[in-house]
Amino acid sequence: MRIPRPGYLARKLAGVAATLFAVITFNFLLFRILPGDPIRLLARAGNLSPEAIDRLRQAFGLDQSLPVQYVLYLRNLATGELGTSLTYRRPVVQILAERMENTLILLAAATVIVVVLGVLFGVIAAARRGTRLDSGTVLTSLIFWSLPTFWVGLIFVFLLGVYFPAFPISGMTTPGATYATPFDAFWDVGRHLVLPTLTLALVDVGQFILITRSSLVDVLTEDYMLTAKAKGLSRRRVIWRHGVPNAMLPIVTATALYVSLIVGGTIQVETVFSYPGMGRLMYDAVLRRDYPVLEASFLLFAIVVIFANFASDLLYRVLDPRVRNA
Amino acid sequence: MTRTMGPRIAAIAAAAVFVAAACSSSATPAPGSAAPGSPAASAAASALASALASAPAASGPAASAAGPSQATLRVGWGSEPDTMNPLTTYSTEATEVLQLIYDKLIGYSTDLEPQPELAAAWETAPDGLSTTYHLRPGATWQDGQPVTSEDVAYTFKTIKDDSLGAYAQWLGDYVGADTPDPQTVVLKYAKPQAFDPALAIPILPKHIWSTMDAKAIQTFTNDQPVGSGPFKLAEWKQGETVTLERNDAFWGKPAVPARIIYILYGSEDVAAQALKNGDVDVLTEVPPTVWDGIVGATNVKAVQLPSFSFHHIGFNVSEDPGSKGNPLLKDPVIRQALSAAVDRNQLVQIALAGKGTPGSTLVPAGLGEWHLDVPTDKLLDANPEKAKQLLDAAGYTDRNGDGVRESADGKPLEFRLIAIESTGVDVRAAQLFRDAAAAVGIKLDLATLDENTLGSTVYNTTDPDWDIFVWGWDSAVHDPDYMLGVPLCSQIGGNNDVFYCDETYDALYAQQATTLDPVARKALVDQMQQMFYDAAPYIVMWYQDKLQAYRTDTWTGWQDVPGGIVFNFTRDNYLNVTPGT
Amino acid sequence: MTAVTFGAGGRLGRVGASFRANWSLLWADRLGRAGLLLLAIVFFAALLGPILLPFDPTAVGHSAADLLQPPSATAWLGTDEMGRQVIWETIAGARTSLVVGLVATAISMVVGTFIGLTAGYSRGTMGEGLMRVTDFFLVIPTLPLTIVLAALLGQSLGIIILVIGLTSWPATARIVRSQVLSLRERQFIVRIQSLGATDLRTVGIHILPNVLPLVFANTVLVIAGSILAEATLAFLGLGDPANVSWGTMLHFAFQSGAAGRGAWWYIIPPGLGIVVTVLAFTLVGHSLDRILNPRLRNR
Predict the structure, then answer these.
(1) pLDDT tens digits for C216-264?
(2) What is the three-state SS of B211-255?
(3) pLDDT tens column, B4-47
(4) Which of C81, C241, C260 sits opposite B448 (nearest CB)?
(5) From the candidates A154, A215, A259, which should be mutated to test the interface with C, based on the most C CB atoms within 10 A?
(6) How far C229 CA sits from the closest chain A CA (Å)?
(7) Contact A182/B at CB under 8 A
(8) Domain parsing of chain C, residue ranges
(9) Which end of chain B is more exposed for a tag (fewer CB within 10 A), N or C?
(10) What is the pTM of this model?
């Protein structure tokens, strides 16, 4: 393992900042240029009084030129002013904060499953490439990859809601429940997490298996692997000690795609299971055309992906055995 | 070649978790209890047992037998309140919760008759221009301050002066209030009121609200509402639950449920599942197809009750030159033809899964005698032949053979149709309407919108850019006045969603609103209904039944009330249901 | 022009000449063959279904008793929440899903290839700039972006196609660009340029044909993704309500409570349709990728 040099870190951070800035600008343009009347967009709810609309107009400079609006937008963003939800008539940033926590839990749980199972089965398949187990695994992975996440969720709701009610099919906690111990709270949330996590992980695990397998196969045919085998190391050692770490690199770089996919999966899963997270917030915002919330949740999702990429870039740097000091 | 143990262990562990969870979830929760398996559940259960043991024996109607309990009533709904401010809310859910936190002067019983609430007694003056209300002595606000006549006077004055919210429409003739003493208030009107606004308006605490001017009230979120009602707001977890707690200082008999939790479900389907699994006690509104799946479930009772609501098709008949609606719709013949082309019974069967009655006039059939049965010769329903005749006679024929009729100057009878995307029954009705219109040579382009956009599109008074919509109305009060008052000229900019304006109609409305003799009033109401029906700015599609459901093994004593066991003008069910089977 | 060597162990000339060779390789591969067969079934059902069995997919039921009925002799796959026949909607939905998938992909491929070519071939700021733009769009999560665009632009079929097409080009652009980058330095390109070939000629006649096979393999995978994207958007309520597709069927199934009612006949056929079609394209794409990408050849 190597610690990345400060210079590298600084450059990477600058890159992240640049991308963040670009996303913020993109978000701004998206919501100002595309719709016909931005005032209707941000200020309408049919029931806002003319005074309320005026107030919003001033806060966001909706009747000013685009560059002025942009500056106001940036300033508002810096102070955490993300607008007012048209549905809840509360500051958007409050709503986001509450929901983000829940989504992160779901994402983390699903990622753990995906990575563990994906790597495991990917390694097994690569180690046995060419055999039936391998093609079986590949086929199964491709099938999982072709499943629409929301449909898998519907099937779970259907099977486990109607025929065999073993797990809760909605929400994150039992409403109105009081917990005597932290363990009780943990257990309740855990039970509610099972189905959404499983659904989310099912589709992405296929992709992960395939990536692991293909990058491990790449590595296993490299020269230095043959050297290791020639040196008399056992096959298991060869695979796990030398093959997998090198194979991890392409997996780590594939994180961008993975995070984008899992963000999409989260939206679907939270919708089907009524899980109170960012994904469902976005779905509800679309249903009600609550543009301030839509704008903010889009930005937040993009930021999550950017930071995941940054983390994976760093991880790559740390893991890459070919990087030498200085 | 060694196999990795990893997958094996993982599988066994997963199975163990699965089995353990399945076992714990199959235990039926105690009525109104917390999560199964948690110590809180057994605590609630034992508290429940002792509460029931100490309740007095039933001697009157079952509803009032039990004293206050420790149990929680769990209510499931599909959307949340928008705010806790009664003066700015437009949401039915908010009104439902607020009617438990705040009192009106007069409420409704489970027979939908007026019953005393904050006003223990009242009498109307002989000239009908004022009513004296005697407030309950000892009634207090939830912050301890006493309720006085000043609060009533303040509430009415503020609503009238600042024209706030949905209540202002009742106070058109309101003149002022006298407060001779803290327990007496006299509300005065310029004309006799056939419908007493005291039945509609929640009374607010002056000492809290008078610190705000009209602007401040508009943005006041009222996060900690202080009312005088049987419940207090304990917590509102946005996007999840609204929790009410019993107000033990309530002026009346304390409510039986200690808490009411309203649970937000992302879909009615999931809510129905939750009801069947025992995770919730009552559902406020169940869509027809979902309801069919609940009927007959164990320990569940599904109710189908008449409602005071309808769904309708509305035409943009604005005469304003700024209107961007298709001007052809201003010709009543086209509207009448479309009304005749629609088979309302088919709409009820297919869009509503049979859970309603075919619609006709503006006053819902649920309001009983007030509803007019349109005479057969004036009926415009399920009669495509008549529709075609009307259109032919008026000169709308298909001049170019494309299947769509044109007017004399060549304009095609093609209109835009909008419906709310998330209201399944409206979307289905819109599709059926489109097909019915096509059968008589009128083309409708259907687009679905979200509720907010539809609302702001329709209610755009400057340049309304729409032709036809599908929407609905719920009567806000148990009286025909509300629905009759929607299409008034003065309601353009208010409730009037089609920009209909007819002076004769308005005059009739003013007359019936101040006619106290029921027979004379009924004649006027009938006249208005027929007039509006003939003009056809609405096609009232159906009067839907209120579909709700509750568990029979957790709470008992639900009274079937026309309009719904909950989400109705009366709040008594909330107060009187008792835990048990 | 003679066939040009391209990578160790591979052989690739003009696309047409090796088409038959590649085809037989595809057919020989088990997974590829399975994919092709599935595709044939789907296309057959979509194109010929309405002709062979002429029913109207929009015909609604007669009374409430016809709604959400399980499969029977008169309704082979049961009815939906308006009494329409699920089997007809499924077949009609196949058409919409395929059309959206194919047209959106076409847009995506054209845009992606064009940008990839330009980014890879141009030197200096143009190339850098386009690369940055491509990488930027790769970072933006796809589903949220398509949701936002659809919510802002509207719900007609055309808009959905455009939205999907315009959000999936970055992956193609990136593949094309890296391919062009490696080709750009090759001997034969340098030689041709020193003989005076213009940039346009170089790209059009020499680079493009060598890029197309990879693009083609990628295209098939993008089709799979586009079909999934349309289904997801429609399920979330952003589909075109006037056109039945598998996604809109599942949307209405979800909305009308079919899952809770146990109406499996309404949930499984459209879902299976999606899975089978997407799987078919994925299998074919996966195989093509192995065939046409010589690096993967020996696996």
Answers:
(1) 888 898 999 999 999 999 999 888 877 889 999 999 988 888 877 788 9
(2) CCCHHHHHHCCCCCCCCCCCEEEEEEECCCEEEEEECCCCCCCCC
(3) 333 343 334 444 444 444 444 333 333 333 333 333 333 333 33
(4) C241
(5) A154
(6) 9
(7) no
(8) 35-55+80-298
(9) N
(10) 0.82
